[in-house]
């Protein structure tokens, strides 16, 4: 039910922004109307914008080819479409507008763009790409380790959902915050994806840093004194208590103390707000945000509402920019989010069916199968499953203690060290190779060590400035050396060439190697 919790939070935020007096009240009424009638088709786009390379440089990470392709895909955006039958059943198809990153890494093929179909049927979510023959079925009740009856859990979750949505609709219908930047642009014609033209009222709402702070403060103060908030909190805790006790679980709060606990919490909230307002003004908070680097923040919401007070189109634009307080970057960082969504066929959403049992693969089957039947090997779902099913090992080299542990077991006579000139971690070639499952060899005449794992073949020579990887010369930051009668090789180079991930923890002088067995 995680998706419902997320949806509830999202709707709460939208109602918060829209549930205001004046022109924005039309938006509030439209959002509430769509909640009352959660049956419609929809289509839209979502993309992220910004100068990502500057942001990566601030974090100390460079934008290599793969990262750059991912960022390009985010900027190109995602197209989504689907149908909402009710609050428990929905369908959405997500399609990457730019799927180069998947194709370049062998995770997608064919003429169609990379896409993912998601079906939700109460507690079960189904996932499938166009390349796959079967759906992955994720049953939320099967993930629950408790022995509580799944039907009882479902009924409890539905009760909480109903309680929450009823509260949101009622609370925000009377929400009185007055937005300062709301404009009614009058009637406009909206052409829907089904080619139908609808006359709709266009309302735009703009919020900046100061407006958002004012809105949050108003909401906090209103919640602390609002009778509906108090009643909802009491009803929610009571429902949780009743469910817990009905299933043999302890609930520390006695029924007679629930109201007192809620009242104390709301009183504490009010006291905190009072202290906060005595300490800071809104203008001071805005200045503090600027001093922390936030140069601008603007959220713009555009709603197109038809004669039935239903939102047929909604556009969201979030623009955020900040400067590097350390002064390392010459230009500000900018980030943005843009979405444009159409909705139609309210009350007459397109029907769709859910897959039969023989058309699905369960999580248990995915964990048991070495080769996953029903998922195409050139698809990203297959790659994700293979990655999750990988059995990995961990090697820890402690440079302070000059010790090594393999999957938690201390290894005798393995003494890593750190080269004093290059800082490279050096380890015995035989140990690192055998631990990672590579076939190793050593030529004492030429003083060369070889590693072979899968399609990777590595040759290192004592004192050599280059290594040979699959017949190609690769420059080394630190050559292999013979020390105390053992052949030592640079840990990071060998490990990463063999497909492992190396992490260095400078504070404790430890190198962690996670590898696939």
How does this structure look, described?
The chain is of the alpha+beta class. It has a 12-stranded mixed β-sheet with strand order 7-8-9-10-11-1-2-3-4-5-6-12. A hairpin with a 4-residue loop joins strand 13 (392-398) and strand 14. Helix 1 (2-18) runs antiparallel to helix 2, helix 1 (2-18) packs parallel to helix 7 (150-173) and helix 8 runs antiparallel to helix 10 (255-279). The longest helix has 25 residues, at 255-279. It is globular and about 85 Å long. The protein starts with a helix and ends with a strand.
Write the layout of secondary structure elements.
Elements: H1 2-18, H2 25-36, E1 40-50, H3 52-59, H4 65-76, E2 78-84, E3 89-96, H5 100-104, E4 115-121, E5 124-128, E6 135-139, H6 140-143, H7 150-173, E7 182-191, E8 197-208, H8 209-225, H9 227-246, H10 255-279, H11 282-291, E9 294-305, E10 311-322, E11 333-344, E12 360-362, H12 363-368, H13 380-388, E13 392-398, E14 403-406, E15 409-410, E16 417-418, E17 425-428, H14 429-435, E18 439-443, E19 448-453, E20 456-461, E21 466-469, E22 472-475, E23 481-483, E24 486-490, H15 491-497, E25 501-505, E26 510-516
Parallel strand pairs: 6-12
Antiparallel strand pairs: 1-2, 1-11, 2-3, 3-4, 4-5, 5-6, 7-8, 8-9, 9-10, 10-11, 13-14, 13-26, 14-15, 16-17, 17-24, 18-19, 19-20, 20-21, 21-22, 23-24, 25-26
Helix pairs in contact: 1-2, 1-7, 2-7, 7-9, 8-10, 8-11, 9-10
């Amino acid at each position: 039910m995680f998706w419902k919790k997320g949806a509830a939070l999202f709707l709460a935020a939208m109602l918060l922004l829209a549930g205001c007096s004046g022109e924005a009240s039309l938006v509030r009424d439209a959002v509430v109307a769509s909640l009352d009638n959660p049956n419609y088709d929809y289509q839209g786009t979502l993309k992220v914008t910004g100068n990502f390379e500057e942001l990566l440089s601030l974090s100390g990470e460079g934008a290599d080819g793969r990262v750059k392709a991912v960022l390009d895909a985010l900027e190109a955006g995602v197209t989504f479409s689907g149908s909402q039958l009710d609050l428990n059943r929905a369908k959405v198809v997500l399609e990457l507008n730019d799927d180069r990153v998947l194709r370049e890494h062998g995770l997608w093929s064919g003429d169609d763009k990379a896409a993912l179909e998601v079906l939700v049927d109460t507690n079960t979510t189904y996932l499938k790409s166009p390349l796959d023959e079967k759906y992955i079925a994720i049953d939320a009740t099967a993930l629950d380790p408790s022995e509580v009856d799944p039907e009882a859990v479902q009924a409890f979750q539905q009760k909480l959902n109903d309680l929450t949505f009823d509260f949101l609709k009622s609370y925000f219908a009377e929400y009185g915050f007055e937005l300062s930047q709301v404009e009614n642009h009058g009637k406009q014609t909206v052409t829907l994806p089904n080619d139908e033209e609808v006359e709709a009222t266009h309302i735009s709402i703009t919020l900046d840093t100061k407006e958002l702070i004012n809105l949050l403060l108003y909401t906090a103060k209103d919640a602390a004194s609002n009778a509906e908030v108090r009643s909802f909190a009491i009803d929610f805790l009571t429902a949780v208590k009743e469910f817990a006790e009905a299933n043999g679980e302890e609930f520390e709060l006695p029924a007679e103390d629930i109201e007192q606990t809620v009242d104390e919490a709301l009183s504490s909230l009010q006291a905190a707000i009072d202290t906060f307002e005595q300490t800071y003004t809104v203008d001071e908070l805005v200045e503090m945000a600027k001093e922390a680097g936030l140069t601008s923040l603007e959220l713009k919401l555009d709603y197109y509402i038809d004669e039935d007070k239903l939102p047929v189109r909604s556009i969201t634009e979030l623009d955020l920019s900040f400067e590097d307080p350390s002064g390392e970057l010459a230009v500000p960082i900018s980030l943005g989010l843009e979405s444009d969504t159409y909705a139609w066929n309210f009350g007459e959403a397109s029907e769709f069916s859910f897959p039969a049992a023989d058309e699905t693969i369960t999580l248990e089957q995915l964990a048991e199968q070495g080769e996953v039947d029903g998922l195409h090997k050139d698809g990203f779902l297959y790659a994700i499953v293979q990655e999750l099913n990988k059995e990995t090992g961990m090697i820890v080299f402690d440079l302070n203690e000059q010790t090594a542990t393999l999957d938690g077991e201390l290894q005798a006579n393995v003494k890593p060290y750190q080269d004093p000139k290059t800082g490279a971690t050096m380890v015995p070639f035989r140990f690192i190779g055998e631990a990672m499952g590579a076939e190793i060899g050593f030529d004492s005449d030429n003083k060369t060590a070889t590693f072979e794992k899968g399609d990777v073949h590595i040759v290192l020579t004592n004192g050599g400035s280059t290594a040979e990887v699959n017949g190609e010369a690769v420059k080394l930051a630190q050559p292999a050396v013979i020390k105390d009668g053992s052949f030592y090789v640079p840990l990071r180079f060998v490990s990463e060439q063999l497909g492992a991930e190396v992490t260095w923890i400078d504070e404790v002088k430890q190198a962690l190697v996670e590898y696939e067995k």
